[in-house]
Design goal:
This protein has 138 residues and is an alpha+beta fold. It has two helices and five strands; from the N terminus they run H-E-E-E-H-E-E.
Amino acid sequence: MYSDRPSAPATAFSGKIDERVKKARLQTLLDLQAGITAEKYQAMLGQVRTVLVEGTSRSLDHFTNPAGDGGLQWTGRTSSNHIVHFPADEGNSGDKELLTGAFADIMIETAHAHSLGGRLIQGPMGATPEKGEKTIAA
């Protein structure tokens, strides 16, 4: 939604579109995009995606650990930049550095407005090296 800038010559132009019309058009566009996103996310349900783990998730109500034990939630991104949240498994629930920077295979099980939810199938692949180890770029 365009807004005039005080020093721009366009502020003096006539025939401006009313703010209510601009807001309605923007909302129509946002609603259309939300529908497209929901459709694409629904199509990912049941698929396994490789996720680059960014670290632990912020506390989000709809991403509570299914076990109900208050365990860690991880977050990462697919190669197409979709955000995926998943609970830590028993082997990595207490080590925040174990998965960070690693790739993990995640089964996509839930779709939300701006992210996906899933469970760890396999990980970590290419985890952060131990102190003193070297990484070699290809």
